[in-house]
User: Fold these one by one.
Assistant:
Number 1:
Amino acid sequence: MRAISANRRAVREALAQEGWRFALVGSVEELKRHQHSCRTLRLPVGNESDNRSRTIREELLAQLPWEVRGQPFPRWLSYISKSTRKRLQPNLPLAAEFCLIHGFVFLIGNVWAERQGGGRWRPHCADGPAVVYDDHELYYWRGWHVAKKTVLEKPTAERILKEENQTEREVLIQRMGVEHFVQEAELREVDSFHGSTLLKVDTAEKRGHWQNGDWTEVPLPLAFLKVICPSTQKAYFLRVEPDAENAKQALESTLTGYTRDWERDLVAET
């Protein structure tokens, strides 16, 4: 859903009674032009209780890259009345600067988001940019800032295994689906234990590994544990640590904090 809309008129009307001088811009380039040509000031934090990111939209903007929002975003909000702050929420500026010539300079844009577990919101758009202003677009998948092609291009096992960036790779796997990825990537069987099978496949990402008294670069594998539901006989694939050496170790890693004799209980249940 669109959480923030770029509506200049609504922003002007909301701020009209605050008594400031202010300007609205639609691109990061314009915002930076003010930074370079005007004398900008770093605003001190106002009342601490008013400075916190307390709303859905303010929390969303706190997740934008530093190069967009500049100084910690919520600071300027402590300089406006609470009634204006409430009216401004649907059209909240994405970033703000303060200069001696123009007063506040606000960057206006659109933000799409989704609600996650616990009631928190995160930038997300499954078929386009999640943050849009005149000269730039930012792509987000469930709160992760990723490249345009990661969101828009069709994911394949070949593309996933060639991707060196972990975040981009994780998003591609989510979009493709674990089961489809496992089937297409042809993972190798490493070990099995009580009907559970450890599967692995190497990626293009490299990591340092100490082996035989020497430090070498080795491919980082993706590891999955195949488990079978005893009731439905349906296969499920659980993501496990790539360092898991055998199926038993991988199974233990999925039972974090389990204090009983899990192996005894598991065998008894199956």
Number 2:
Amino acid sequence: MLALVARTFLIDTDTASDDAVALIMALRAPDVRVAAITVVAGNVDLEQATRNALYTVELCGADVPVFSGAEKPLLRTYQNASWFHGGDGLGDHDYPAPRQSAQKLHAVDAIIQTIDANPGLVLVTLGPLTNIALALSKCPDMVAKVSRCVIMGGAPCCEGNVTPAAEYNIWVDPEAARIVMRSGLPVELIGWQLCRADAVLRERDIEHVQAFHNKLAHFAIECNGQAHAAYKIQTGEDGICLPDPVAMCLALDSTVGIDWSEHYVDVETQSELTRGMTVVDRLNVVQDDRNRAVWTPALRGRKATCAGASITNAGKNRSSRHCDNDASAVHLSIGCASQEFSLPRTSQKLFPFHNYAASQHNHIGHARDLNALEH
């Protein structure tokens, strides 16, 4: 049996409930080495987000350095999302303080150093893009050493979750998002619209996860309790919406995306009405002379890879056949970004809580990222 060849991930997060599940997915993936976790203020303040990241790492029994970064957006007043995730970001269950502390190096410098030391790594962002924008400003050459930049953010061509026009991660620091989108990074933008509908964990899915009776499965559901209630208020839909695990699923297995397209994307920073809107050139009209003046800065970058707006259940049913009493994490997908991005329509490989040891695949396929919540 061939050994798995580890891929290197660098994860930037504003660790709250769905971020925690996404971290579990990466930390438990047998073919992924998480070189560093960097933390940014977003869902909760920087100190709390760092604490949550450290707690999640310890819960997984992992040895991964955590670095604290930007405490506020580049220009905007910081606004958290504690109404959705709870005051502590993890549903206010009074989880114990982590034993470890964050590293002393600032997250921005950690990002630069980690990318430089691991050319070809996969950069996954789960929060506002402040840390990444600051790193790019200090070291624009780092773009060439990133093989993929998977961003959970944006609401291309659909409604947002914080305003009618914008998704939270982009809205909270639109200037940072614009810098990243125009940087030349190989962006795969995973929009909020792809994290709804069939991607939402319904009651049957929740019961399936809880039935494994292990600490990771319990934590994954429990810490999202407040988010479950908030999502019902926000959308009228009953279930747990997990945007960051959707993005992580696609980072772990890009083949989950079944319908991608590449488009120029820019971010609105001037209008308060549409602040943070991810504007996608789906009809490829920006090359028209009448549009070039406005889009010239974005045209200097590359197109983003963006995912389509629907998910099927085929992968969910398939992966459920591989479950046992060890749990995994969510495996969903979708994507999109600014420069030349790809927008995929995706199939859903959803939360098969499966024992990695029981499925020693060389190329793990659908079982790979769904096996995170073990013991």
Number 3:
Amino acid sequence: MPLKAEILGRAGPWQLAAGGRPLRYWPLACLVTLSGPSPSTAAGAPLGGALEPKELLDRFLAGSNRQRQREWPQLQQLGPKLFDPLWQLLSSQERQASNGAIGLLLQWLAQDPQQLQLLESRWPGGWLPNPGPGIPAYGELQKALLLGQFEEADRLTSAFLRQLAGTAAEQRGYVYFSEVTAIPRLDLSHLDDLWWFYSGGRYGFRVQRRLLEQCGGRWEELWGRLGWKAAGIWTRYPRSFNWSLEAPEGHLPLVNQLRGVRLLDALLKHPAIDRPTADR
């Protein structure tokens, strides 16, 4: 495995929520790759003015990636005033991993203890439901991602992949590339959805696949793009990895590379990952 590398995340600016609890501003970098509808909004219209919190939230979700990036810090300054319109939004949304902005808003909401309790009461297994009969919602992984606990989420993902690959993989403690084809499509697709959704579109196997294509299939170039290798040296696990949203795009989840590229190659070629986003 790339002895798993880390560019330590920087603490962002803070704001005070109800009761004086600090809410961290999510970094702007996490909004650059959000997908979803992006009709243009009124050019040059100020974020504040006479607009109500719900109107500001609607404009944020309808905006382009660049507009969202610009408006996100100001939107967060609304603090508790944003809670009610955000709950109205969540109650009216289809629970699908189609817009990473919703995942980021859920993470922001979960920073407040009372709001987190409400989220867990309303959707005990996580906001994203299980993708089909007999398929778990992977609630433990969802919670780790919701809370921004990316190192724990990476550990859980590795454990789930071993379970899905079969008893032999669990017993030896890692997955052979030849076992990847046995991983059910719906499960792997859902794991990927969780990473993509709760990272605002920055993380997940689909992102790593896209970056590999942009690198022309050159793995050594990919390692640098992912932040897994620098100057020919694998970055060290776990302290050298960036367990935050400020890591390079595609940085997570991690895949063991000590036995070569075949495991990651098999994952990125799995039918759950090697397909257009619209078919997910």
Number 4:
Amino acid sequence: MSAAGGSFTADEMMTVAAARALRDGARCFVGIGRPSTAANLARRTSAPNLVLIYESGTIGAKPDRLPLSIGDGMLAETADAVVSVPEMFNYWLQPGRIDVGFLGAAQLDRYGNINTTVIGDDYARPKVRLPGAGGAPEIAASCREVIVVVRHDRRAFVERVDFVTSVGFGAGPGDRERLGLTGRGPVLVVTDLGLLEPDPDSRELTLTAVHPGASVDRVREATGWPLAVAADLRVTEPPTPAELTALRALEGALGMTERSERTERTEGREGHEGMRKEGSA
């Protein structure tokens, strides 16, 4: 795809749109992967005062590259504070002190329920066993609002998730209240095709914007249920040159870090093998 700011990919459009959704100064609980990329992009562009919070206990992290995991030492080195994981969940998350949770998903249904546990209807013998819940259920339950970032296809956007890892709106209106969940739930789903928001009455995800180059028909074809479309459907503004430059610099730095770590591991193994051979000679 291309625009006045230059050519861009669908994934870049998705990441930029997700970054724009974060308010400057908000406290954001960040998931690893695309949510982390978008949150770090936001801090470099539209939300310089965004407070990044990671599950490992870092508050106000200011990484100069994308972290490799929630345990990346750079998060602790650049954070305003580092707290224990129990304190993070019991004091910061559960009482509603975090504004927005930023999550990914393997499966997502029409009510914003997330599956990151198993694919298949047999938990003991699934078709695919996914990484699991981590802190996502607590994030989905207790953050004041939740934003989900996920590629849009029928494998991900399903009529009913195979396993409810993190509750969105359950089976519809009233379920969050019935379950005692204090956060508002998912307020936005950002995909590589467009933006979806919950209908205020039915709580069903509704297409409210399409990205440049996408169409309503294409989004519907990629969705596993009859997708509702807003009457005032918008077209997302394409990425600006500044947004693309910042995003590509972030992803380029991550690639260099990963290559460097692979080289270090390889050299370490080779050195160990050499010493072992010398010792056995």
